[in-house]
Amino acid sequence: MVDTSHPGGAERIPLFAPKLITIFREGYRLTDLRADALAGLTVAIVALPLSMAIAIASGVGPERGLITAIVGGFLVSVFGGSRFQIGGPAGAFIVLVSACVASIGLPGLIVATFLSGFILATAGLLRLGGYVRFLPYPVTLAFTAGIALIILASQVKDLLGLTLGHEPAALLPKLQALWVARETINPAALALAGLTIALILILRRLRPRWPGLLMAIAVAAFVAWGLGLPVETIGSRFGALPRMLPAPVLPDLTLFGEALPWAASFALLGAIESLLSAVVADGMSGRLHRPDTELIGQGIANIGAALFGGFCVTGTIARTATNVRAGSRGPVSGMLHALFLLAFLLIAAPLAAYIPLAALAGLLAVIAWSMAEKAEIWALIRASRADAVVIVVTFLLVVFRDLTEGIVAGFALGGLVFIRRMAGTAQILTEHPEDAVDEQTLVVRLQGPWFFGAAALTGAALDRIADHPRRIVLDFAAVPLIDSSGARTVERLAQRVHRMGGELALTATRPEVRRLLAAQGLAEPKVRFFPDIASARKR
């Protein structure tokens, strides 16, 4: 296997080799370590509040978000196939994780995470990574927007400081319950959430290189503590964070049957999210990731995180982009980001108890708003009615039914749209050439991919062609590929021509096209093959 991740490089590397091996083989110097240390610290500052906020929104304690970022993030960088990927808990998983916890509890979530790791690693070993990237762009936009809306709805309770007994998971019942509890709005919580959102947006605009997320959370925590505001904090809801990582423990595998469907959903979303993140890093850095190795790395990271009590790990687009912009030289920055988070847990964990939940809700509200790529969605809806249908159906299924159903249905719709468009490129061009041997010879030129979609649209036209001339020359010069359905239409044409006492000649068939035609029984003397139309005319 050739390492295409290094421009101009043709160094042979082992199959599934992590990118960490690649950077050390290229030569890793002290200057690289300095750059990676700075990038790792920058990413850790971004990941610290995000990891806790995502964990809380997912229905688990904030310490599990940090554990996931530390253990999972470290393993993703060690074993992954992207130089710059940062692993950890992701906002895209909030919906699935919270639903999983509500359905089978925290032990079941850990088992599902553990099993999803094996599914991801197996997918990588089977070299399925390249196929995951075929997810249509409208589907990606729609499910991301759907997740963003659900995340935003899940934060309304803490944004407003509402007193709510049971908060339903489904969107419409959730909104109804929030409306019923509207009289319990806490003005202090609402003010802190507004302050956090305003600080994040102002710093993002005026000082984009500053750690705006962490600074906004720190200011909100200081204000809440200094003024003694009556708001709920991490400490009041979850207690103090642990000062070290727990010992690894094998999950309760008696929950295997209940956890397996969730594990499949985690693996599907994790594969999509991590490979999309790796593609973003490729675009920013000019490097190429190894998708199969990345899936193996993600699988190992999920297994490792589950052993320590963490939950789903995936590549995170925002943190990965921050890593690239901060000057990362390779996976070492991701490993150091995890170690910096571990240092916080060991040294400064008690400070997290003062963070208001309203501030974390404000942070996630900004993240959710940024996740939904509104301009791109609107541009696609205006440009293509078919893409608009894919976006709307996927979005509605994600929001009101299930994330996995939305992805599968969107993928199927996107595939049908693609098939229809590709089928439309196939054409049949006929001519009665003046220099033909006689007027009974017809030249038929096929254009475009000749697959089942094209065969369905044009098969009847070929049948009508067979009713007239005694000799037909079928030219495949402009046919890049054919499938069994397309070959079957040609075989049916040959049968009709033969029954009418005519002859069929095929020209300019590529080797792979000719193999599929032969599989349908199209061989000499049933049909005759020529290198080009001129040769067929002479004969």
Structure commentary:
It is a multi-pass membrane protein. Residues 431-539 form the STAS domain. With 539 residues, the chain is mainly alpha-helical. It folds into 3 domains: 19-135 and 225-258 and 270-359, no CATH class; 374-424, no CATH class; 426-538, 2-Layer Sandwich (Transcription Regulator spoIIAA). The chain is built from 23 helices and 7 strands. A 5-stranded mixed beta sheet has the order 3-4-5-6-7. Helix 3 (62-79) packs antiparallel against helix 13. The protein is elongated. It starts with 18 loop residues before the first helix and ends with a helix. Mean pLDDT is 86; it is low at 1-10 and 433-437.
Main sheet: which strands, in order across? 3-4-5-6-7
Radius of gyration: 29 Å
Q: Roughly how many Å apart are the termini?
A: 47 Å
β-strand number:
7
- In the residues, how many domains can be counted? 3
